[in-house]
Design goal:
The complex is a heterodimer of chains A (131) and B (416).
Chain A: E1 2-9, H1 19-39, E2 42-46, E3 54-57, E4 67-70, E5 79-87, H2 91-100, E6 106-112
Antiparallel strand pairs in A: 1-5, 1-6, 2-5, 3-4
Chain B: H1 5-26, H2 29-50, H3 56-81, H4 93-96, H5 105-119, H6 126-136, H7 142-148, H8 153-169, H9 179-201, H10 208-228, H11 233-246, H12 272-286, H13 293-306, H14 315-328, H15 332-346, H16 348-355, H17 359-362, H18 366-378, H19 382-394, H20 399-415
Helix pairs in contact in B: 1-2, 1-3, 1-5, 2-3, 5-9, 6-8, 6-9, 7-8, 9-10, 9-11, 10-11, 11-12, 11-13, 12-13, 13-14, 14-15, 15-16, 16-18, 18-19, 19-20
Classes of the chains: A alpha+beta (131), B mainly alpha (416).
């Protein structure tokens, strides 16, 4: 089954860690991504801060154009910061994957994928550009 | 600092919100800081075992309020013990009434803005304003701030103490601001953060590495403000401007530790992550059609950041943007930058014409004479070129700059 791993975090925290601490987290992701790419297909993305988000809200009146609002959909204590899509045989396997990237700053929601599609080129893996 | 970096990071993230809310609650900055640090000590004892509470901010606020009230009670009993006349124990309703645990986001937003606005007090120098904001809002230690501003810890300690006294005596407006006041505060605070970034950015060669935290903290404060006011286009512009600049940080310094000018930077060292974040923000801001000076400056930085090379830079666009910026900031320095762009699009003669009327205002500005010198050289006017370079030398350039200038002067003399 295809599983999604939805990563939530209080957004400012990563930036307030020392560079060494940040690297520990990034290393977890690099190592997981290296293993996953050997096994087969997977997808992942790290999202930009929510200040970059806009929200398009559909109107109840279908004749009206949707509303475009600055900011994320909901004000929450933890923000959706990134995700993985990975094929796993069992939920237990999926949990092992989530454990590999878990940290005190994140919670990871594992949710099976109902359907999926698309292709991704132009990959930009973690730490590929100087930060 | 504790053995729990994840807790320290969490405290650091919560700090501006907590200090802001506690300051309104107690109407006393010192007490708010003390109450917050006691709450953090309690959290360090409790969280590693019991796990993070559902709402860490609410937890720290409740514990912080109680800690603050304890301090006040002790002060009161100590005071009455000494039989002092009037005790200034506060009996405001908001302290004695049972407090509301839910946090009002709108209120919190104005609290944080107020805290920053108080730091930007007009009686303080821009540097002291920044130092205070870094200490109180960002929670940097006095040592860290002193180091970044290249002064002794002792000196910085005194300056911050003095600055705190100034703002404690000031009449802090605690009522909820109306829309005009809020915009005024946002402008004042944005300018303070802008100057903080520039302080870090305009460092000389030897200072660059030391001053970079100032840029990072300015980015942090801009992010904080934008997260509170997500529809403010000038805040988007401000953060975008910082990110475009900061993206070039690694290319700004060479192996010898010297500054590298934009034209000569290795563009592969620019952080594409930061550049794309900045572009995203600028795009978002420009949709609103409410331009402002930060957005225009960010747009100029965007043109540089997205050019594959110095030669391939869209100078016509930069020149156009500088003429727009001049409408917001009709200053000779903006004019000078405009002239540099004009030299690329219309040639050095047009640039010289634009620079000539600025002589009185910019006669003490090194870059003015340096730019003029280069334009005179390009138009084979070696006598004025030589005079311009001599003017730069008279204005105390750094040693490496001086060497370059001397060789240019020799070049002029040979051609005369």
């Amino acid at each position: 089954m295809l599983y999604s791993f939805l990563i939530y975090s209080a957004e400012g925290i990563h930036d307030r860690l020392s560079p060494d601490e940040q690297e520990i987290t990034l290393d977890q992701h690099r190592s997981l991504q290296a293993d996953l790419s050997e096994k087969g297909d997977f997808a992942t993305a790290r999202l930009m801060p929510i200040s970059n988000a806009i929200t398009v809200k559909g109107q109840t009146d279908p004749k009206q154009k949707p509303l475009v609002v600055d900011g994320p959909f909901a004000e929450t204590k933890e923000q959706f910061v990134g995700f993985y899509l990975v094929e796993h045989e069992t939920l237990e396997e999926a949990i092992v994957t989530a454990e590999r990237i878990s940290s005190p700053y994140h919670s990871i929601e594992i949710r099976p994928v109902m359907w999926s599609g698309g292709t991704l080129s132009d990959m930009n893996p973690v730490g590929a550009t100087p930060n | 600092m504790s053995d729990h970096p994840w807790l320290d990071a969490r405290f650091s993230e919560i700090r501006p919100k907590a200090i802001a809310a506690l300051t309104r609650y107690f109407r006393d900055l010192e007490l708010a800081e003390e109450a917050f640090s006691q709450a953090c000590i309690k959290a360090l004892k409790s969280w590693p075992d019991k796990g993070l509470p559902d709402d860490p901010l609410a937890w720290l606020l409740t514990v912080g309020r109680n800690a603050g009230l304890d301090i006040l009670r002790k002060q009161k009993s100590a005071d009455s013990h000494q039989q002092e006349a009037t005790v200034s124990f506060r009996t405001d309703d908001n302290i004695t009434s049972p407090h509301n645990h839910s946090i009002d986001q709108d209120e919190l937003r104005d609290d944080i803005l107020r805290l920053l606005f108080v730091c930007a007090h007009p009686k303080l120098t821009p540097q002291d304003q920044s130092a205070l904001a870094l200490r109180i809002v960002a929670g940097l230690s006095v040592e860290q701030i002193a180091c970044a501003f290249l002064v002794k810890s002792k000196t910085m300690e005194q300056r911050i103490t003095r600055a705190k006294r100034t703002i404690a005596q000031a009449d802090t407006p605690f009522e909820i601001p109306d829309i005009v006041q809020r915009n005024e505060r946002l402008k004042t605070v944005s300018l303070m953060i802008y100057l903080l970034f520039n302080e870090g950015w305009s460092a000389s060669s030897g200072e660059l590495q030391i001053k970079i935290p100032l840029c990072e903290e300015a980015i942090y404060l801009a992010r904080l403000l934008l997260s509170l006011f997500p529809a403010q286009t000038e805040l988007m512009g401000l953060l975008a401007l910082f990110l475009f600049q900061h993206a070039r940080y690694k290319a700004r310094i060479n192996k010898q530790g010297e500054l590298v000018v934009l034209d000569e930077q290795d563009r592969n060292l620019w952080s594409q992550t930061l550049i794309s974040e900045a572009r995203g923000l600028l795009d978002k801001a420009l949709r609103h059609g409410t331009p402002g000076s930060f957005q225009v400056q960010a747009a100029i930085a965007a043109v540089h950041s997205t050019a594959p090379s110095s030669e391939a830079t869209d100078w016509a666009e930069i020149e156009r943007l500088y003429s727009i910026l001049y409408r917001y900031y009709p200053t000779p320095v903006v004019r000078l930058n405009h002239a540099v762009a004009l030299a690329k699009t219309q040639g050095p003669k047009a640039a010289i014409e634009m620079l000539k009327p600025l002589e009185n205002e910019l006669k003490d500005y090194r870059w003015y004479h340096a730019a003029l010198g280069a334009f005179f050289m390009d138009t084979n006017q070696y006598l004025p070129a030589k005079q311009s370079y001599q003017a730069v030398i008279a204005l105390d350039p750094t040693e490496p700059e001086k060497q370059i200038l001397l060789s240019k002067i020799r070049e002029c003399e040979e051609k005369l």
